[in-house]
Amino acid sequence: MSLPRAERLRALGLWPTWRKRGAMAASVTAGAPPGGQERVAAASDTTAIASMDWDALREAVSNCTRCDLHRTRTQGVFGVGDPHAEWLIVGEAPGADEDRLGEPFVGQAGRLLDAMLAAIGLKRGENVYIANVLKSRPPRNRDPNAQEVAACLPYLERQVELIQPKLVLALGRFAAQSLLVTDTAISRLRGQVHSYRGIPLVVTYHPAYLLRNPADKARAWEDLLLAQETMARLGARALAASSSP
Length: 245
Fold this sequence. Notes:
Layout: H1 5-11, H2 21-31, H3 36-49, H4 54-62, E1 80-81, E2 87-91, H5 96-101, H6 107-119, E3 128-132, H7 146-163, E4 167-171, H8 173-180, H9 186-189, E5 193-196, E6 199-204, H10 207-212, H11 217-243
Parallel strand pairs: 2-3, 2-4, 4-6
Antiparallel strand pairs: 1-3, 5-6
Helix pairs in contact: 2-3
């Protein structure tokens, strides 16, 4: 399911784009439409998330009730890896195995991801952090909806702020579209370097998709090489900057 751009922005509190955030909050409080107070509380909660350290953030995910997914999940899936990683890998949402074990990308898709990382000299947990847009599993692995993304995205945003990665690798259509706030097809997002909060972002296929469509592994390899080349350029620039008088 591909959510319209307006719906994504509306769920994130960014639509209509010409309205100030303060004005939006005031109208919600004063007008008191159904659910208005809940939206104000959610905004306050988001502010708290933005200042959390790792321990507080992990605890918040474990006890999160910001959307209805907490009613059906087994546990929140926070993320795993090096908290100071240069590489941040972002997927869609936990599946059944992840929900059961509490770690992103386990099972067959996780093994393929590990192989993809190994192909460019990376290893889970070593200069790599892995997380999902959603921290709770949608029932029957359905696509997340806009409200669930809006509720969960502040956790990922705070993880990005704490990690300060040099590059983001978005796995799959949903992760790419959520981070870039676009409805553009993954086929058009691939093959170029995007920017997420000032951080280079490269898009490739989700490992679960590649398991179903092995012919696209060659395209995924091209994406991994692009990510590797982008990281190498970043390293060269940093070295040149440190060497200049």
